[in-house]
Amino acid sequence: MIYRFERFVFDPEAARLLDSGQPVPLEPQVLRLLTYLVENRDRIVSKDELNDEIWQGRVVSDAALNTRIRAVRRALGDDHVQQRFLRTYPKRGFQFVAKTDCLEADDAAEAPVMAPRESALRRAWLWVSPALLVLILVILSAVWWLDESEITATSLRLPAKPSIVVLPFENLSGDIDQEYFADAFTEDLITDLSRIRGAFVIARRTSFTFKDNPVDVKQVAADLGVRYVLEGSVRRSGDQVRINAQLIDGQTRHHVWSDRYDRALTDVFSVQDNVTGQIASALKAELRVAESQRQRPTAGLKAWDYALRGNVRLFNPKSAEDFQEAKTLLDKAVERDPGIASAWSGLAFVHFAASTRPIPGVSAPNSKDLSLEAAQRAISLDPKDAEGYWMTGVGYARNGQPERGMASCNTAMALNPNNDCAYVCAGLANMALGKPAEALPHFQQSLRLNPRFRPSTKYKYMGLAYLHNEQDTQAITALNRAIAGSPDDPMANFALVSALALTGRMEEARAALETSMTLAYGNRTTIETLRASHSWMGPGFERVLDGLRLAGLPEQ
């Protein structure tokens, strides 16, 4: 069942909430909570019932539940004062109270989005003459559209240039241990297709959200705003590989091109080159041949195999174990063959992650330096390794060398204009250089290229950039979206506190600060500790601290 309430369309089965047609990121527990409340909207749901249904009977604190309730409200543009969608009944529970229509899947695509029945704007302006009201509403609609497009950067109109998503190739080997090989083949194809001049290629992490799920290629193309869909399969048997690939027009479901390849494992790179070249021909696009030559294995296939396995673990790491296993495999790769650039760029990412969160057995006081060293090693071995360049860019920016960081990010974007991480790198480097207005388009392009993988992180960076740029209202909108998708992100919560305080919403700011202090940083967080950990983000971060100071965060 699909539900419509005011401007929202909610499809629990597809895990999708649309706000005026734009996707709203939801963290899994927030999604389950919203689903349960909407499905039981005819009654008040108690806290005990939510513990049973959402947390499977595990007792959680009121603070944890309230954090998720706030995340639901933020996703819907609601708050504890208006309670337009979600009403709190003290000592009884919660109820979803918005007027809700139930739609079948076929109807949902055609259903108009309903405007709020009685907005605060309308109640305040009842005295305005009809003609003037129409004019004002037209202007406000234009301003709203501009603000929203700035923040979401997810206008899903087809790009003017050829656009494509590569779905994960299916492993037909009958051996689950060969899954990594199909995944690695998919990743290499995505990288190679990004070298078609002028092509728009959806990033790998969004591509892999479709893995092991039945898909309608027309729906996928529409959801991602691309024209073409590439899908296929890989069957590996010993040292032989059979690969099938087909290119489909996502608007018509017409098969544009298909082919099959039977090759020795050592010749798999030529298959990737052939597929990329034939797709470029089908799209009537120019392939930058000089840049399509990837690094070949130099010391046997075993080291290369370890590098493939390790990097596949980093496609969508969900736990410390993923990083630990990736590091073990990548270490084995460079021990056998220290000349594999992709293994070093993978290690750079592992150490980067270990410098931002505790990963047992991996995190170390010098993780930040190890990340930069590994990234530098990668690009010294392969000067066309975009992954290595964006990792060096972030490393330089975090080490107080933002100019060098920006140069590396620019190189990464030139080598692979469809690498979403390169745009995040450029955005962070611009913030470190004190250029938040220039950072925003980079974060927005990253979100457009990779809309389904952790969009809350991009919204967080957008929110910080807006704060640095004294656009506090836009910051609040972006940060609410970030927190709706990732309620436990400490920096997103602290940034929201700052934005609320800087706009004079002190009661909300103090309540949000109380929530923020219960998260990962705990009561150890002060103005001084945040300055020490985030001063690399540039002079604009002092403004974030000003807002936190107004809200009551202690200096030391």
From TrEMBL:
Lineage: superkingdom: Bacteria
Protein name (record): TolB-like protein/DNA-binding winged helix-turn-helix (WHTH) protein/Flp pilus assembly protein TadD
Organism placement in taxonomy: Bacteria, Pseudomonadati, Pseudomonadota, Gammaproteobacteria, Oceanospirillales
Entries under Gene3D superfamilies matching the protein: Tetratricopeptide repeat domain (1.25.40.10), TolB, N-terminal domain (3.40.50.10070), Winged helix-like DNA-binding domain superfamily/Winged helix DNA-binding domain (1.10.10.10)
Entry GO MF terms: DNA binding
GO biological process terms on file: phosphorelay signal transduction system; regulation of DNA-templated transcription
TPR repeat locations: 420-453, 456-489
SUPFAM superfamilies to which the protein is assigned, alphabetical: C-terminal effector domain of the bipartite response regulators, TPR-like
